[in-house]
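User: Can you recover a sequence for this backbone? Please restate the input before giving your answer.

Assistant: Of course. Working from this structure:
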């Protein structure tokens, strides 16, 4: 190990207690997006998290900048090259079933349990400490290093749009928010908003709700069904014989059936890792419905398929493989079922193709479904031989002895919004998965990440300064 890397490693080892304490303090801020107020465009908790990050940066000698309370950064160094680490300090909602209070940052059996431990506060703090180590150990580095703290990554990345309005493009950038050693291709992400007129018959869907965010597999749904007397015996018999123990159907009155479904949350980029409560409720409704109503609910059920086949958009390419589809929010308003669907499409596709395919498919059906809105975030792709990719992969291999090649993923990170940027790994097996109940990060993994990030940031800075 050369002298710079050895000094960084020793400094980070000596400051592990500080890293852990600062990480716990950040995790204890419940920075889920809320309604905007003055000086808090994403709600008070997100603003509090940003204030904490910038105060910490100032305490440790970084210059800081707050961009309209949407995003901010700490920076040190001099010279033209700019190396940026982009982390986010907002988190998704917590949901039920946690082992510990989800913002307690409780340490148990060597793990920190908290929403945001893996996605993305833990990695962001590890990267901040990596930068701090470089600041203390390599004062003559001919480059600037900037650690960015975003507050709206989980809900549209509008914080980065604000950043791009005034801030320069980095020479090299990393977003510590994916898999090791790095992701060189991120699938395109688009959202389809679809309305389907409610079928009218001897049963009538009068209420439907489920989901908080498009990029989370729905873990709980509720429906209210009005049942005409002509169908009541049929429905009662079907409910009695239903097989799904995660569905509870209760007669509120002779003609009103209340239905609750429990699923399992997962990140929207891997819907097959969860268990969609939207799928459960539409399947249950199809099973208990009279014959004339079954096709409508079977149609809704098919729409929730994680391959996108029920929307006519299934497909793949050789670089990033299969498209995935997550029905993240469902509701009933003004006589229509509304489905908000989060799509991760292959890197060689365009978002407009997904929309066109879906619209053409829906037009062939007889249920009157239509796309009412569409949002798109294009894919990211760097060839394996690109210096940003090769430097990161080499440093990870040198430190970890791991020759895993750069990967491809369906998740979207800040890397797709900032030029010359890729996402890099966070955590290892045993750590909790992003967006799931009991998210956790091993304390030793937090320390290990800081060591790896320091090495990557230093090597990128040296490469940029020497180019």
């Amino acid at each position: 190990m050369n002298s710079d890397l050895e000094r960084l490693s020793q400094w980070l080892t000596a400051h592990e207690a500080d890293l852990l304490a600062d990480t716990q303090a950040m995790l204890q801020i419940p920075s889920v997006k809320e309604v905007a107020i003055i000086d808090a465009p994403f709600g008070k908790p997100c603003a509090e998290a940003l204030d904490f990050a910038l105060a910490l940066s100032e305490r440790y000698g970084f210059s800081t900048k707050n961009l309209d309370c949407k995003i901010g950064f700490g920076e040190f160094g001099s010279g033209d090259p700019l190396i940026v680490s982009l982390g986010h300090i907002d988190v998704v909602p917590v949901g039920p079933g946690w082992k510990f209070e989800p913002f307690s940052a409780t340490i148990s059996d060597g793990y920190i349990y908290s929403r945001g431990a893996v996605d993305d506060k833990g990695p962001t703090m590890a990267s901040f400490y990596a930068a701090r180590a470089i600041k203390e150990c390599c004062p003559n580095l001919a480059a600037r290093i900037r650690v960015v703290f975003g507050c709206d990554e989980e809900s549209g990345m509008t914080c980065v749009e604000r950043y791009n309005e005034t801030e320069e493009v980095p020479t090299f950038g990393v977003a510590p928010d994916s898999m090791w050693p790095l992701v060189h291709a991120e699938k395109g992400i688009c959202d389809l908003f679809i309305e389907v007129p409610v079928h009218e018959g001897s049963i009538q869907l009068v209420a439907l709700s489920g989901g908080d965010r498009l990029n989370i597999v729905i873990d709980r749904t509720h429906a209210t069904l009005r049942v005409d007397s002509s169908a009541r015996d049929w429905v009662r018999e079907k409910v009695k014989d239903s097989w799904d123990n995660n569905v509870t159907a209760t007669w509120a009155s002779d003609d009103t059936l209340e239905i609750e479904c429990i699923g399992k949350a997962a990140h929207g980029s891997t819907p097959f890792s969860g268990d969609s409560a939207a799928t459960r409720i539409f399947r249950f409704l199809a099973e208990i419905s009279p014959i004339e109503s079954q096709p409508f609910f079977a149609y809704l059920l098919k729409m929730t398929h994680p391959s996108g086949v029920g929307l006519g958009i299934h497909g793949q390419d050789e670089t990033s493989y299969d498209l995935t589809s997550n029905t993240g929010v469902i509701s009933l308003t003004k006589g229509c079922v509304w489905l908000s669907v989060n799509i991760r499409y292959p890197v060689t596709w365009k978002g407009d193709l997904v929309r066109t395919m879906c619209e053409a498919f829906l037009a062939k059906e007889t249920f009157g479904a239509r796309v009412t809105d569409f949002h798109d975030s294009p894919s990211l792709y760097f060839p394996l031989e690109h210096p940003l990719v090769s430097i990161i992969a080499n440093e990870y291999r040198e430190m970890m002895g791991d020759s895993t090649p750069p990967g491809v993923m369906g998740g979207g990170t800040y890397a797709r919004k900032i030029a010359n940027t890729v996402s890099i790994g966070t955590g290892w097996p045993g750590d909790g998965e992003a967006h799931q109940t009991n998210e956790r990060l091993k304390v030793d993994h937090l320390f290990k990440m800081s060591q790896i990030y320091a090495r990557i940031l230093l090597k990128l800075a040296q490469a940029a300064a020497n180019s």
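That completes the design. Residues 443-466 form the longest helix (24 residues).
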